Amino acid sequence: MNQPLQVNLTKELLELENFIIHRSCDVEQWFRSQWLENQAPFYGSVDLRNSGFKLAPVDMNLFPGGFNNLNPDFAPLAIQAASVAIEKVCPEAKRVLIIPEKHTRNMFYLKNLFQFKEILKNSGLEVRIGSVDTSILESTNIDIDENHFITIEPIEKREDFLFLKNKDGSEFIPCSIILNNDLSGGVPEKIKNLGQQIIPPINAGWPTRRKSSHFQFYSQVVKEFSLLTNSDPWLIDPLSEKLDNLNFSAGEGEDRLVETIDTLLASNTKKI
Amino acid sequence: MNQPLQVNLTKELLELENFIIHRSCDVEQWFRSQWLENQAPFYGSVDLRNSGFKLAPVDMNLFPGGFNNLNPDFAPLAIQAASVAIEKVCPEAKRVLIIPEKHTRNMFYLKNLFQFKEILKNSGLEVRIGSVDTSILESTNIDIDENHFITIEPIEKREDFLFLKNKDGSEFIPCSIILNNDLSGGVPEKIKNLGQQIIPPINAGWPTRRKSSHFQFYSQVVKEFSLLTNSDPWLIDPLSEKLDNLNFSAGEGEDRLVETIDTLLASNTKKI
Fold first, then answer.
1. Chain A CB contacts of B86 below 8 Å
2. Which band of pLDDT confidence, cut at 50, 70 and 90, is reported for residue B61?
3. Helices B75-89 and A24-37 sit at what angle, rounded to 10 degrees?
4. Across the interface, do A123 and B28 touch by the CB < 8 Å criterion?
5. Contacts of A24 in chain B (CB under 8 A)
6. Does A80 sit within 8 Å of B124, measured CB to CB?
7. With CB atoms 3.0 to 4.6 Å apart as the test, which of A3, A94, B69, B261 could cross-link to B29 if both were Cys?
8. Is B90 exposed, middle or buried (CB count within 10 Å of its CB: 0-12, 13-18, 19+)?
């Protein structure tokens, strides 16, 4: 995010870039029409790979990190964007609870979490962080630099709603819960069947969501966008193939992986 | 806009300011809940008067000028805000037509118009300016400084829609029309009964809208807001009274005006 793409674009990608710059009205209008039909995710981050002749996403995270890498000059934009997202998704929200990953020892993640909380706070929400990590037994302050710390609290549950205990014995009951946990470790019992709104919904987590189906949908979107830009969909669509029963730590399936990659690349050589 | 308020606030206003700063979550949430019930205007500007013991609006313009006075550092925020407003009010819009005031000799107004057009352009719209001024007979470029000019074109009408003629004979047909003309000279025939969407609607113009009723509604809003902030509504509510048959150029009704002001102030001395 801090480093510009260093690769020089080749002709076709330059033409696409040119289109996007000079026909920004058409592009923006295309996006607005898409948002009418499909709700945009509350937040997200995309990993891009740029070879100079192809520039494609290789992952989309619906529980993004890296808020600490945002350009501080753009903080007002992030805050305004958060306000708009909140107004769209949960306009009645006032108190929100962030459920983070369990990486309480990963300083990058904690700094990211701190920034994310600041953005939400500045967009006019009361924000606290509650962990599903069962090792968090009491409200815990963790220093993230010399001047700042982050407080992570144990989540309590009664009937179908989550809350935090205040020091004075009262309760912090969030209207909405913002997941910043990709649920790759499974869906914790605590957050199942809640009366409170969860953003993004639990089925955006990895137990339900499949990268393979994400890229099927992405391919479809690329086809539509390429009709608008009159460009080759291949330029921005990654090659992908689903492969089952891989286990890298046990070395299982590596041969099949190599084979599949070779076949994928071979079927696309005309392009490279 | 460029000068901070120079008056020191007195106790009660300081308390209100304090509330707004320290209880920003409640204030933002109050606004979000209001936007659920009432649509916010597409744009607007408010004139404030600050005596130090009372800080109140004295006018609200639904066809604002002064875009050239916005802090250039905040341009990205203005562009993002415009995108959001467009997405809410006319998401399908691509080409828009701005109908400005007729002040084509007022350089401040033209600079303002130029900035407003830039903001809309940068939010992803194709924007042109068409005047209802019957003296504009052809596309006219007006320099606004050494490097920039603004193009004002005559508006054409066919059946129930407005358009501009392109140089090559084709037509620029806007999806939406953005009024930046307060219609204080009356509603031009050309913009009556249009099939295109007009933002704000024509009845937001001065021929329909009354400052007296604006301040009646404003008073109601102030009462609700003051319940939230636990403050005296008087602090932010202007005193107003409706007076008919005034004519300043003919000097008609000046006595009654003086009398009415005296009575208004006298009935509020307990406060001052």
1. 32
2. very high
3. 50
4. yes
5. 124
6. no
7. A94
8. buried
Q: Which long-range contacts (CB under 8 A, 24 or more apart) does A66-72 make?
A: A66/A1, A66/A112, A67/A112, A67/A113, A67/A115, A67/A116, A67/A119, A68/A108, A68/A111, A68/A112, A68/A114, A68/A115, A69/A1, A69/A2, A69/A112, A70/A1, A70/A115, A71/A1, A71/A2
Across chain B, what does the average pLDDT equal? 90
Mean pLDDT, range A67-88, rounded to an integer: 91
Please give the structure tokens belonging to residue A268. Answer: 């696309």
% residues pLDDT > 90 (chain A): 66
| Contact check, Cβ <8 Å, A87/B29 | no
Contact B80 A83 (CB under 8 A): no
Tens-digit pLDDT profile for residues A14-54? 999 999 999 988 898 899 889 889 988 999 999 999 999 99
Confidence of residue B255 (pLDDT cuts 50, 70, 90): very high
Of all residues in chain B, the one with the smallest CA distance to A29 is B94
For the record, the structure tokens of B43 come out as 């744009």
In angstroms, what separates the C-alpha of A90 from chain B's closest C-alpha? 10
Pairing of strands B176-180, B126-131: unpaired
- Asked if A33 reaches chain B (Cβ–Cβ under 8 Å), the answer is yes
User: Does B94 reach chain A within 8 Å, measured CB to CB?
Assistant: yes
Do the chains contact at A81 and B76, CB–CB below 8 Å? no
* Set of chain A residues whose Cβ sits within 8 Å of the Cβ of B22: none
In this complex, the residue of A25, A92, A126 whose CB is nearest that of residue B25 is: A126
Burial readout A102-127 (b: 16 or more C-beta within 10 A, e: otherwise): bebeeeebbbbbbbbbbbbbbbbbbb
Who among B26, B36, B125 is closest to A25 (CB)? B125
Q: What is the pLDDT of residue B50?
A: 92
| Amino acid sitting at position A26 | D
Q: Which amino acid is at A128?
A: R
- A186 inside 8 A of chain B by CB: no
Tokens in use for A118?
Answer: 């600041």
Q: Would an 8 Å CB–CB cutoff place B92 in contact with chain A?
A: yes
* N-terminal to C-terminal alpha carbon distance within chain B: 27
pLDDT at site B145 = 92
Residue A3 has pLDDT above 90, yes or no: no
Q: Does A50 touch chain B (CB under 8 A)?
A: no
The burial class, CB within 10 Å (0-12 / 13-18 / 19+), for B241 is exposed
CA A119 to CA A76: how far, in whole Å? Answer: 9
What interface predicted TM-score (ipTM) does this complex get? 0.72
Residue of A nearest to B79 (CA): A77
Interface test with B, best of A20, A23, A32 (most B CBs within 10 A): A32
List phi, psi (to 5°) of B197.
Answer: -75, 130
